[in-house]
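Entry 14. Ran structure prediction on the chain below.
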Amino acid sequence: MQSLSFLGGGIVAEALMKGILSKGLYKPEQILVSDPLESRREHLARTYEVGVTSNNLDCLAAEAVLFAIKPAQLGTVLSEVKGQWSKSVLALTVVAGARLEQFGNALGQGVPVIRAMPNTPCIIGQGIAAITGNEWVDAAHLGRAREIFSAVGKVLELPEDYFDAVTGLSGSGPAYIALIIEGLIEAGVHQGLPRRISRELVCQTMVGTSLLVQQSGAHPAELKDQVVTPAGTTAAGLQVLEEAALRATLCLAVSAATKRSKSLGAKRSS
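Output, structure tokens:
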């Protein structure tokens, strides 16, 4: 019987758990979650009827083990499981900035490791995750990972060299988008709209525009120009955004996040 364990039972782990259970990829009795917080263990056991434990080593009997811990905890957890890992057990990780090399060094030669970078919209099944594997990962391993992460959104298979940029763009991206949404809601309120109405207008505009870009296949600039009329309201608003260097600022934000991801990965590998 296939089995899956989670080292860490936080938000991303719970989203994955919810997705794979709803898709029928695993049954509750096939899942074990390790978390140090009793309140968290009780919540997961009560909500999803999965097995829970406070001992990470209990999880190593599964066919696949997913690291879903905070980056600061990774060194401690890898030290704990080092020497206990079977080569037949697939390791999956969603730990930001942690490279395949670090897991290979800790878990040993021959252990298949798949690194994934999902984002927070996976909580509602609308995320996107990049995945990549080390030299011991085969097609069956990648198929398993694709199934797991497809349960909460879309999946792209990419080289690990792209992962810092993926972290800076789609991994951190929901925070950028949320900030823009927050700003637009406030702008609507400042113009006299009730907050509830402003929020609804902004959220649906963001969703609708994203789907329009995605489904039409048109360049965003083309869709932008469809809204602009000479000397019109949109042209006036866009001029302010261009003068404020919005696109350049977004590029700088993604660049800064990418650099931070690279530096975190370098520190952990050294």
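The mean pLDDT is 94. Will compare against last week's run tomorrow.
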